[in-house]
TrEMBL record:
This is Semialdehyde dehydrogenase NAD-binding domain-containing protein. Signal peptide: none annotated. Belongs to the aspartate-semialdehyde dehydrogenase family. The active site is at residues 141, 254. Residues 44-128 form the Semialdehyde dehydrogenase NAD-binding domain. CDD domains: ASADH_C_bac_euk_like (cd18131). It holds the Pfam family Semialdhyde_dhC. GO terms for molecular function: NAD binding; oxidoreductase activity, acting on the aldehyde or oxo group of donors, NAD or NADP as acceptor; protein dimerization activity. GO terms for biological process: alpha-amino acid biosynthetic process. InterPro entries: NAD(P)-bd_dom_sf, Semialdehyde_DH_NAD-bd, Semialdhyde_DH_dimer_dom.
Length: 346
């Protein structure tokens, strides 16, 4: 989930997605969008998958960031076509998405398509301009959350190996999975057989390997996305990445345990200072109170939270660190990142 892309002259995010046509002029200053009240000269938008969890979050982010638009269309599957949806001061009829080619994750690893996290690698999309053609891909949610925390440290000491274990919420599988988790929880508490329509196994009070297909190498597709996308975003084919992705019975927001090995020494105090200054990152790291990031801390929040910042005792010479990261998969892991890309274009 969270698969997104932007194409020009009709930019678009897909999965739950946003098309942008024509120009706008949201100006950028030091990682901050200058909000604009006038929208007559803004772009025309079309939100794809508007009835899903990420589609709904797109609408919230558009409002929260006062993203300028001249008009907006609501697009979804055939079964939702004709329904009405309220947004800001208007009511819109949902239209059926008929285009067959909007499978965004297919673009992520295309050589000529930048894969962008605005706080991490905005320069990768420097050649793309509104009306000039081009495509920008939105990374996988787990990759975004991971690299928001790992990249500032990578810039300082250069990561040569990264081990990631993810604890992924129901939100990553969409609104239907979130609803099923809630339903299963009630059913299990009432000692009824759990309804398993989305996943093949019980989700409530359980955890299991991510449901993405497993390849011949033993890694599932979600894990390989972390491996391949990290190399592309960091523009480093030599960095070693391995991942294990797990579904946990959390409603919203992913957690990740990240072990980093560096080329240069990096002590935990310096790492903490680096992360405190990093855009889009918050620190929750209180050892005395055993207070560290949780999914609830970041749900409906823009920032990725980082804690458990500690030296890896298995690596000599302060060349390793462990960190624990939580980020809202629907927001920064999908909708917010896509809107931030759009803001950079305008």
């Amino acid at each position: 989930m969270g698969a997104s892309a932007i194409a020009q002259p009709r930019q678009f995010f897909t999965g739950s997605s946003i098309f942008i046509t024509n120009g706008g002029n949201c100006r950028r200053r030091a990682n901050q969008c200058v909000r604009m009240a006038a929208k007559e000269d803004g772009p025309s938008l079309a939100v794809v998958g508007v009835t899903g969890a990420v589609g709904q979050e797109f609408l919230r982010v558009i409002t929260d960031r006062d993203f300028p638009y001249r008009s907006i269309k609501m697009l979804a599957s055939k079964r939702s076509a004709g329904k009405r949806i309220g947004f800001e001061d208007g009511e819109y009829v949902i239209e059926e998405l008929r285009t067959e080619s909007l499978t965004a994750s297919a673009f992520r690893m295309d050589e000529g398509v930048p894969l962008v996290i605005p706080e991490v690698n905005p320069d990768a999309m420097a050649h793309v301009r509104v009306g000039k053609g081009g495509l920008i891909a939105n990374p996988n949610c787990s990759t975004i959350i991971c690299l928001m925390a790992a990249t500032p440290l990578h810039r300082h000491a250069k990561v040569i190996r990264m081990v990631v274990s993810t604890y992924q919420a129901a939100s990553g599988a969409g609104a239907a999975a979130m609803e099923e988790l809630e339903l299963q929880t009630r059913e299990v508490l009432e000692r009824k057989p759990p309804t398993c329509n989305i996943f093949k196994t019980q989700y409530a009070f359980n955890l299991f390997s991510h449901n993405a297909p497993v390849g011949e190498n033993g890694y599932n597709e979600e894990e390989m996305k972390l491996v391949k996308e990290t190399k592309k975003i960091w523009n480093d084919s030599n960095v070693l990445v391995t991942a294990t992705c797990i579904r946990v019975p959390v409603m919203r927001a992913h957690a990740e345990s990240i072990n980093l090995q560096f080329e240069k020494p990096l002590d935990e105090d310096t790492a903490r200072d680096i992360l405190k200054k990093a855009a889009g990152v918050s620190i929750i790291d209180d050892r005395a109170s055993n207070r560290f990031p949780t999914p609830l801390d970041v749900s409906n929040k823009d920032d990725v939270a980082v804690g458990r910042i500690r030296q890896d005792l298995s690596q000599a010479g302060k060349h390793g660190l462990d960190i624990f990261v939580c980020g809202d998969q629907i927001r920064k892991g999908a909708a917010l990142n896509a809107i931030q890309i759009a803001e950079l274009l305008l």
